[in-house]
Backbone:
């Protein structure tokens, strides 16, 4: 089928899958960069400077971080608008879906519902985080992030965001593969079983990685609570973050 001939609901579905895939790849990559704090403050400082373009341009340009945040926000908005079409639209539809889900006991139907609930939560949780990154791109770093998370109590945002985003990303990728991969009918059950094991493995891995980083930021923020606002200067003593 050529792209030109795809239109209407099929085009919306394709775009929803593509925007979802890009967002999942971004979030998984982001988790590794953001977890650099597990390797120490200097490792996170290096990553922060890299995203500000300092390793290429010789000085930091936090606006680069704002530009990425704006692009991610646009992707989230497009993905959400396309997904809204599939949300139950009234109390009656919700009731009917619940009856359907409870009577069927079908794992993939339940997973779809988890996508609706986590997707809805992400409207708020992800938007709050990305907006903050957009308006304060120069406020990211070993001390700046840790102070925000502990003294600014942002762990209250990040803990539910972490769980929702990784459930949503893991289940989303599982559904993408089931939907678009050319799986021979005879192997569907076997592939489905294996994909589910991979899906849960990935979800548990990222939630564990994110929890370890979150606790590390909280610990640094706790130890730094009497010096909030002070920036971390690396071993070279250059501009701190
Ligand atoms: C340009 C876009 C983004 C940048 C630069 C960014 C950067 C960061 C940074 C530096 C942290 C550490 C805490 C802090 O400084 O506040 C963080 C935490 C986090 N971010 Fe992002 N982020 C972006 C987008 C996103 C998106 C789109 C999501 C998911 C929808 C996301 C999910 C998270 C989560 C779950 C945490 C907490 C991680 C943990 O528990 O260790 N971020 N982000």
Residues:
């Amino acid at each position: 089928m050529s792209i030109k001939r795809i239109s209407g609901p099929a085009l919306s579905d394709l775009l929803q899958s593509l925007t979802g895939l890009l967002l999942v790849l971004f979030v998984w990559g982001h988790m590794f960069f953001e977890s650099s704090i597990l390797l120490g403050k200097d490792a996170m400082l290096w990553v922060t400077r890299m995203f500000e373009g300092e390793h290429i341009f010789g000085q930091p340009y936090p606006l680069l971080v704002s530009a990425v945040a704006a692009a991610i926000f646009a992707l989230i908005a497009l993905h959400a608008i396309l997904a809204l079409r599939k949300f139950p639209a009234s109390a009656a539809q919700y009731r009917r879906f619940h009856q359907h889900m409870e009577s069927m006991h079908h794992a993939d139907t339940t997973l779809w519902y988890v996508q609706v609930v986590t997707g809805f939560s992400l409207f708020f949780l992800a938007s709050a985080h990305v907006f903050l990154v957009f308006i304060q791109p120069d406020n990211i770093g070993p001390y700046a992030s840790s102070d925000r998370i502990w003294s600014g109590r942002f762990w209250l945002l990040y803990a539910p965001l972490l769980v929702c985003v990784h459930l949503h990303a893991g289940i989303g990728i599982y559904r993408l593969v089931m939907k678009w991969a050319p799986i021979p009918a005879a192997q569907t059950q076997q592939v489905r079983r294996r994909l589910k094991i991979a899906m849960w493995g990935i979800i548990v891995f990222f939630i564990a990685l994110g929890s370890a980083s979150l606790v590390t930021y909280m610990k640094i923020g706790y130890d730094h609570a009497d010096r909030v606002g002070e920036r971390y200067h690396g071993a070279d003593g250059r501009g701190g973050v």
Q: What stands out?
A: The chain has nine helices and no strands. The longest helix spans residues 188-223. The pocket of protoporphyrin IX containing FE is lined by residues 27, 30, 34, 65, 68-69, 72, 122, 126, 129-130, 133, 140, 145, 148-149, 154, 158, 161-162, 165, 210, 213-214 (CB under 6 Å). The two ends are 51 Å apart (CA to CA).
